[in-house]
Structure formats: C-alpha cells, structure tokens
TrEMBL record:
SUPFAM superfamilies: Enzyme IIa from lactose specific PTS, IIa-lac (SSF46973)
Binding site for Mg(2+): D81
NCBIfam families, alphabetized: PRK09591.1
Species this chain originates from: Streptococcus ratti
Modified residues (Phosphohistidine): H78
Record-linked InterPro entries: PTS_IIA_lac/cel, PTS_IIA_lac/cel_sf
Any one GO biological process: phosphoenolpyruvate-dependent sugar phosphotransferase system
Entry keyword set: Magnesium, Metal-binding, Phosphotransferase system, Sugar transport, Transferase, Transport
Protein name: PTS cellobiose transporter subunit IIA
Free-text cofactor note: Binds 1 Mg(2+) ion per trimer.
CDD domains listed in its UniProt record: PTS_IIA_lac (cd00215)
Required co-factors: Mg(2+)
The organism's taxonomic lineage, starting at the top: Bacteria, Bacillati, Bacillota, Bacilli, Lactobacillales
Length: 104
C-alpha cells in the first residue's frame, strides 16, 4: 500500500469519527435541554458515522492480514486515536442519557 492510499484511509477515519464526535456533542446539548429523543437520534447518527470510520479501519486490517505491507505513519496513529476516543465518548454519552432520563 502506498503512502497516498494510507493517507486517504486515515483521513476517511478522521473525517467520519470527527463527524461522529460532533454529533455526540450535539447529543450532550440535547440532553441538557431535556430533549432525550433528539439526543438518542444524535447518538444513533454518530454510530452510523463511526461505522463508516470503522469500515475504513477494517479494510486496512483485511489488507494487512492478506499480506499487504502497510507502513504506519503518524497520521494513521492520529486517526486511530481519534476513532477510539470518539467511540469511548459515545459510550459515555449513552450512559449519561440514561442518567438524565432517570433524573427527570
């Protein structure tokens, strides 16, 4: 896999996980406003974006498993960090949504 292909995959992961992260923050705002249905929808939308990012990651792993040499660059490390942080943030948001609903 050449550098350009790797960078395209990394930016796809960053873009989609960044979109998901924005949606999670929108869900937090909806929770603060008491709009739990909107928060739930934003978290579902965030999950859809994360699935796109995860698919790009899975494609790389499948290529690697198939014997394609993949040179890890700092942008890929950043992309992986971005995705995993967003996944964790969404999990926390799902728990917070349930807590908000119990409090109100």
């Amino acid at each position: 896999m050449n550098t350009e292909e790797l960078q395209v995959a990394a930016f796809e992961i960053i873009l989609n996980s960044g979109n998901a992260r924005s949606m999670v923050h929108e869900a937090f705002e909806a929770m603060r406003q008491g709009d739990y249905d909107l928060a739930k929808q934003k978290l579902a939308d965030a999950n859809d974006e994360m699935l796109k990012a995860h698919q790009a990651q899975t494609d790389l792993l499948q290529k690697y498993a198939g014997g394609v040499e993949i040179k890890i660059e700092i942008i890929m490390v950043h992309a992986q960090d971005h995705l995993m942080t967003t996944m964790t943030l969404r999990e926390v948001a799902l728990e917070m949504l349930e807590l908000y609903k119990k409090l109100n």
